[in-house]
Write a structure and sequence with these properties.
This protein is of the alpha+beta class and 301 residues long. It is built from seven helices and 16 strands. 27% of the residues lie in helices and 24% in strands. A six-stranded mixed beta sheet has the order 13-14-10-12-11-16. The chain has a four-stranded antiparallel beta sheet with strand order 6-5-9-15. β7 and β8 form a beta hairpin.
């Protein structure tokens, strides 16, 4: 089959046109569009669950990761009838709510799926608290050590978290919430945690937002978790060498020095068979008591 060939598949009763199935999207490892769509079908139950009710931003690489890319917020046109959308301001976002929609986006070479922190129609009370650890170095061998320190700190104040790789260089700690605190209150909590970490481990952590001021420290990004901002969705592929994938980890893996590169499109099938979705294992928690504690112990001004 030539690289410029085109065909159709029928999924859940919907017809999807597939173009250039032999186009190489990741040269290393060699992953073609046809292979990518097969992996998306495998990931669909997990991606669809975590992206449900979120505003979706995709990043497209029409010629694979070696080519040019662009962000796609507005729904691509023309869109099939099975694609549903949600309007926010002047942007008409795709709703990632079905396997046909996911494969349609995959055919358009959407290689990354970034979901909004706020849910559609629920902008005040988030359903999770996310602390993003963003390395200043492209290669950061301390990232898992840093994640374990933050996870242990949260556990010491009664908060259980789940660790997720970004699939790029950083990691995120996810704390499901019962929805009893606002985004602004979570920012107060995040700043408290970040400030403590920078004081306890000044050679490892920083809360300096400007990269030029961070040195080689890992940035505790408590500001990113806010309406209108996005995060790489759990199980989203990343357009990076090795076809890495944003993947939840066990704390045992983190303590053993897990490598972000080990979690990718080629290994995820076996991992899901072994673990399932680790994010299902952690229950929503009441965070208002933590907010009250933090607000009482945070200097004013």
């Amino acid at each position: 089959m030539s690289a410029s060939s085109k065909g159709t598949i029928i999924i859940d009763g919907e017809t999807i046109t597939i173009s250039n199935p032999n186009k190489v999207l990741w040269p290393e490892p060699r992953i073609t569009k046809a292979m990518y769509l097969e992996k998306l079908a495998l990931l669909a139950p997990y991606l669809l669950h975590h992206c449900s009710g979120r505003y979706m931003t995709t990043i497209r690489w029409p010629d694979g990761i070696a080519g040019e890319s662009f962000y796609q917020k507005n729904c691509p046109e023309p869109a099939p009838a099975f694609v549903h959308t949600a309007q926010q301001g002047d942007i008409n976002y795709v709703l990632l709510d079905s396997l046909p929609t996911l494969l349609w986006l995959g055919n358009l070479a959407c290689l990354e799926f970034h979901m909004s922190f706020d849910r559609i129609g629920e902008a005040v009370y988030p359903t999770e608290w996310i602390i993003d650890l963003d390395p200043s170095l492209e290669e950061e061998p301390r990232i898992m050590e840093a994640a374990v320190i933050v996870g242990d700190l949260l556990r010491s104040i009664g908060v259980e978290s789940m660790l997720k790789t970004s699939g790029a260089t950083g990691v995120q700690l996810i704390i499901p919430s019962t929805g009893d605190v606002t985004f602004d209150e979570l920012r107060v909590m995040g700043r408290f945690i970040g400030t403590y970490l920078t004081q306890a481990h000044p050679q490892l952590f920083t809360i300096e937002r400007m990269k030029v001021d961070r040195g080689d420290c890992i940035y505790v990004d408590y500001l990113q978790h806010y309406p209108g901002k996005t995060i790489a969705a759990p199980y989203s592929p990343r357009a990076r060498k090795g076809a890495t994938l944003s993947t939840p980890l066990t704390w045992e893996e983190a303590r053993s020095g897990a490598r972000i590169a080990d979690y990718n499109l080629l290994t995820i099938g076996d991992r899901l068979s072994q673990y399932g979705d680790l994010l299902f294992q952690i229950k929503p928690q009441q965070l208002r008591p933590i907010y009250h504690f933090v607000s009482k112990n945070t200097p004013k001004g």
